[in-house]
Amino acid sequence: MYFLGAIAALVGAIWMTVNAAKKDGAVAAILCFICRFYTIYYGIKNFAENKVPLILFLVGVALCIVFRPDMAALSGVGAV
């Protein structure tokens, strides 16, 4: 599930970066590519055009946080 979340977050981030490049130019695209907080800000600011990529990005980040592999040892399940 972790890798599915990582792929979803990556696809959403690339999609929003392409949308930023088309609509607002190179500076917005570079900021979306470098800074993930700007990606979230840009998705909220232009929610009408970025509904699907923003939700895809946020769900992917949430899956990455919930299913982190380094947290398996703390779950008590006995990961091998």
Order of helices and strands: HHHH
Largest sheet: none
DSSP helix fraction: over 70%
In whole angstroms, how far apart are the ends?
17 Å
**What is the mean pLDDT?**
88
Principal-axes geometry comes out as elongated
Which blocks of ≥5 consecutive residues have pLDDT under 50? none
Beta strands, count: 0
**Fraction of residues in β-strands:** under 5%
Rg, Cα atoms, Å: 15 Å
What structural class do you assign from the helix and strand content? Answer: mainly alpha
DSSP helical segment count: 4
Entry summary:
With 80 residues, the protein is mainly alpha-helical.
Give the topology, please:
Elements: H1 2-23, H2 26-34, H3 36-45, H4 51-66
Helix pairs in contact: 1-2, 1-3, 1-4, 2-3, 3-4
Question: Which characteristics define this entry?
Answer:
80 residues; mainly alpha; 4 helices; elongated
Please describe what this structure looks like.
This protein has helices at 2-23, 26-34, 36-45, 51-66. The longest helix has 22 residues, at 2-23. Helix 1 (2-23) packs antiparallel against helix 4 (51-66). With 80 residues, it is an all-alpha fold. The protein is built from four helices and no strands.
